[in-house]
Design goal:
Blueprint (H helix, E strand, L loop, with lengths): L1 H16 L6 H22 L8 E6 L5 H11 L15 E5 L6 H11 L10 H14 L4 E5 L9 H16 L6 E6 L3 H7 L1 H4 L2 E6 L8 H14 L3 E2 L6 H10 L4 H17 L4 E2 L1 H12 L32
Parallel strand pairs: 1-4, 1-5, 2-3, 3-4, 6-7
Helix pairs in contact: 1-11, 4-5, 9-10, 9-11, 11-12
Amino acid sequence: MADEFRNDVQLKITKLRGKFFKTKRYEELSQGFDKLYQVRQSEIEANLLREARGLVLVGESGSGKTTALRRVFEMHPQAKVLTQNEEFGDIATLSIPSPATHKFVGISTLKALGYPLRRDPTAATIWDLAQRHMKARRVLFLHFDEAQDFYSARPSEMTAVVNTLKSIMQNNEWPVGVVLSGMTRLVELLNHDPQLARRITPVYFPQLSENQDLDVGYGACQSYADAIGIALGDDLKSQNFLRRLIYSSAGQLGIMIELIIDALEDALTKQDTTLTLPNFARAYGKRTGSIDGLNPFIIEGYHQVDPRLVLGQVELGGFK
């Protein structure tokens, strides 16, 4: 019975981890990509070879940008992500390799297109192959995740990559839109080259605000609790709790949802029928290894705790 109970808990938690919580920021991202896609499709139908445009999504680590963009791609009514099992696809996606050199990025792009290299050609040859394979596989958009790593490369390498991105979008045989996602430093890459920036539509996932986004925190708690039939305690409806929830998540939506799921797992494990503040306090303690005296769901002056630090060290009087 104990094993059966644990399995049931994990099945419910797995269900929650596969759930997606929509926000206004997600809708903005979805609409932005849909507009780019519809324009590109219209141009193809009209047999026009115009310069492609792109999109950049920036946000801090844990803001949910990668999950949101993946969801946009998966749920688009027409666009298809390229896979190894499909000959054609509208979107090819990859993470930026380290180091983010012109050649390494080209090799990773070819792999994402289903063409692993068996020799060591020049960077120019690699990108020429990539362009040809994008046309052959009917790729309309090339997505680079963790694109802020472009900026960590040497200036000459970064310039080479930026020039290549522009050439992909301007190709006179098969222009491809570029989608970039990454941390806020990615903005510096765009500002480095105004010609690239003017071709890219920016979308920003800002930090959640303790004053303006309490409805987001409450909506997420309600949505995830409803999904597994657990009620919300009255203590979770207070502004005080919701501010603590946002602060404990460092203002990042993705981290907040992880914390909500951890709290629900605590409630399930204890066979609670209602999600309450103690569930969040225990979940935060397990997540960070913090003692009660450094737990934002317990102490009065919770702003003294830095939720981004393991063990919840306070940057005051000897704690660093």
